[in-house]
User: Fold 4Fe-4S dicluster domain-containing protein from Anoxybacterium hadale.
Amino acid sequence: MSTIEFKESNCKNCYKCLRNCPVKAITFFERQAAIVEDECVLCGKCLSVCPQDAKKIRNYTDIVKKYIHKKEKVYVSLAPSFVSSFEQSPSWIFAVLMKLGFTGVAETAAGAVQVSKQYERLMSEQKMTNIISTACPSAVMLVEKHYPELVSSLAPVVSPMVAHAKMLRETHGKKIRVVFIGPCIAKIEEYKDFRNGGAVDAILTYEELLDWIKAEGIDEDTDLSEELKSVEKNMARIYPTPGGIIKTFDKESRKNYQCITVDGIERCMELLESMKHDGLRGYFIEMSSCTGGCIGGPYRQQLPGGFLEARRKLLNYVKEGMREDVHGSIEERNLDLSKVFADRSSKTPLPSEGVIQGILNSTGKFTEADELNCGACGYANCREKAIAVFREKAQLTMCMPYMRDRAESISNLIINSTPNAIIALDNKLGIQEINKAAREMFRLGGKIAEGSSIFDILACEDIARALKRKENFYDKKYYYVDYNITVEQSVIWVEKHNIAVIICRNVSMEEEKRRELFEIRRETVDIAQKVIDKQMRVAQEIASLLGETTAETKVTLTRLKKSIMAEMSDES
Assistant:
């Protein structure tokens, strides 16, 4: 399962995710969006901007619950930004985690201390031209996947999460389970990275933790009597803010490199472009893909006061310096915190200029003037979109101006080519659109303009009735005396757009043929009736003659019978 997945039923083809994806790691197939995993840096922007909530991330809550249910020792590495993501006190959060069944809870800040020391060592050695911090997995993926030329500038050091997980295992045993809880979905990809040696077993976001707490029915009235032990101050808690890493360096370490902070993935990309093309040297760059650092992460809880209040809470927590902890301090160990980074970029070739132009031509762009570069499709310009089409990441139909022109031209072609009169009215019976056939049918020419009343053309009660009752009338015949035509007329009320559409089909010739046919049939009936009458007269005459002949025959035969009978009587 991918870290980010799209819910197929919800994706509405709005391209908002693509427009906001800084690396364009989203593809569309059959109008359905999907993540291009080889290019995605898991910045989470597509999740935060989707208006349909059409995306979901891999949830490990059930896996963590299984660890706890099996009575395994499960330790939490809690990101320092937690204090700015929950309204409750840090002590309450620690107590709740213990209530959920975790064996122990410690802040990832302990690992951040050791990572900062590794950065200081690299700066003192002065072997690297530039050093890019590797605490942010999204920033690391950005370099590995999209700026492979700069992989050598990545500090060969694990992130605070991995460093802390290794420290926890060194302290509590190799067989424990370590669960990282923070605001970052890129940590999910980092925990699965084989280069980290399986240091972390699962990832939970703050949102998922809050859902779990609610599901367990835990609130501020819940009895959380387990005491928490205090620990020493730890400036590494300031890591989640922009410049937090640099603030942990001592002054001596900063002498060899100019230390700068860059947050927000667009600014990170801008700086990486400068490093790639402008030959920058001697910089230590603290890079975070989220604007505002980790406290601006995609899965932190939005509290009243927004980013400023979150930052204030974190800085106050740093200043307090004291917290309660279920374990006490974790000793620094001689751990291997090194990591090797690699070129993970996609090697898809660029299309030739001829291929690009051919794709542009297929969407009606034959000159530079035709390339509007509106960005509606999600790409910065039409050429980028054409390249994406070549790479099968985008479709021709994603070009909004092209599809609109095409739809309008097709609809106009149909409307203006149909022999039926089509008239669109507003809710006050004013004419909004009238097609060519209507002008010809009612002999209007250019006399009627848009906005004129329909009654300037047609006097028909059904039209007003359709608007008044919001009803439709289909295929009713009307004879318009002024135009000497008979039409088969439909009046359709379109509620969604608050308009009425009149469709008239000229059936004058059909009516004339029908009348002619009726006349022929009437004449046929008259002729048939005359034939019937004549036949009846003939039949009556024949019957009369047959009656007379029959009577005469009867008289003759009777006489013959009597004669024969008389003769027979005489002989006897």
Remarks:
- DSSP finds 18 helices and 18 strands in the chain.
- The first strand starts at residue 4 and ends at 6.
- Residues 508-571 form the longest helix (64 residues).
- The chain has four domains: 59-325, 348-408, 418-506, 518-572.
